Structures are given as structure tokens and as C-alpha cells.
């Protein structure tokens, strides 16, 4: 997956009192707007320095739409509200929303794969590729754990090898 570099400032760590004192030393009437912007940027660098970080963005599923993204965001809002209040009303609202979100995810995936299958009626290679992708179990992301397990118990790997040779 491609890595990208992002830049950000942690604005929550700014001390409002010291920032206010520093802002009072600036006088916008005496300086040009460019100098004023430069001064504000240097104050931001002082109170909330610009940080960079390499991040990996995983690809979203092809059926994951903006509507689903907004539903997920709304679910997070409801979850925070529930954690803050603990009220039964908020718990019920959160549960109902999560049920609706899960159903929307299932429907979107189903519609996506149905359209793929319907659109590949004349292309058998594409059709079988789609079906194999749907039916084949996903391989684990890290194969080290499965290799480690087979080395930990040689009798187990011998037994599984014998069974696969007979099957």
C-alpha cells in the first residue's frame, strides 16, 4: 500500500493564555497583511509546531460510498454521546444506528457484486474471476504466524501434509 506524508499541528496543546499574550504583541494596523500572516505562522510554529508523519492509507472497498462514510461518522457521534451520558435513550439510538449501518453495508456489497455478475454475462473469464474472489477464503495478512505454528509442532505439519497428499 502506498505511503503518504501528512503534515499536521496539534492545536489542542496550545495554551490559550500564552497564545493570547503573544497575539497582543502583534499590531495589524502597522504592518502589511503578508507580514501579519508570517507573524501568525511563526506564532503557530511556536505554540503548535508543524509535525510530519508517514501514513499508509488502505484502499476502501469499491462499494464503500460517501453515504456509508457519513453513516459511520454519525455512528461515532452517537457512540461518543453514549459514552459521555450512559443514558438508555442514547444506547438505543446507537444500537439502532449500528443495525441500519450494518444492513446498509451488506446491501451495498450485495448490489456491487450483483452488478459485477450481471455486467459480465458475455465475459466468462470475468464472471469466474468474480465468483472465485467471492468464494475463495481470504489469505491471512501475515503468514509468519502459520509458518511458526507448523515449526512448533512438526508432528502436526506431518499429519496435515499426509492428509493433503491423500485428499
From TrEMBL:
It comes from the Eukaryota. Residues 139-167 are annotated as: Disordered. This is Uncharacterized protein. It comes from Pogonophryne albipinna.
Amino acid at each position: 500500500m502506498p505511503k503518504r506524508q501528512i503534515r499536521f499541528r496539534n492545536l489542542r496543546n496550545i495554551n490559550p493564555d500564552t497564545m493570547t499574550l503573544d497575539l497582543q504583541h502583534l499590531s495589524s494596523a502597522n504592518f502589511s497583511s503578508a507580514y501579519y500572516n508570517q507573524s501568525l505562522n511563526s506564532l503557530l510554529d511556536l505554540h503548535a509546531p508543524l509535525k510530519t508523519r508517514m501514513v499508509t492509507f488502505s484502499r476502501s472497498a469499491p462499494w464503500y460510498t460517501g453515504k456509508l462514510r457519513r453513516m459511520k461518522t454519525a455512528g461515532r457521534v452517537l457512540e461518543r454521546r453514549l459514552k459521555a451520558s450512559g443514558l438508555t435513550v442514547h444506547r438505543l439510538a446507537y444500537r439502532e444506528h449500528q443495525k441500519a449501518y450494518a444492513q446498509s453495508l451488506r446491501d451495498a456489497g450485495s448490489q456491487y457484486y450483483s452488478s459485477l455478475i450481471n455486467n459480465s454475462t458475455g465475459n466468462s473469464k470475468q464472471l469466474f474471476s468474480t465468483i472465485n474472489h467471492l468464494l475463495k477464503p481470504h489469505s491471512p495478512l501475515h503468514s509468519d504466524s502459520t509458518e511458526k505454528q507448523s515449526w512448533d509442532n512438526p508432528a502436526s505439519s506431518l499429519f496435515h501434509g499426509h492428509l493433503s497428499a491423500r485428499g
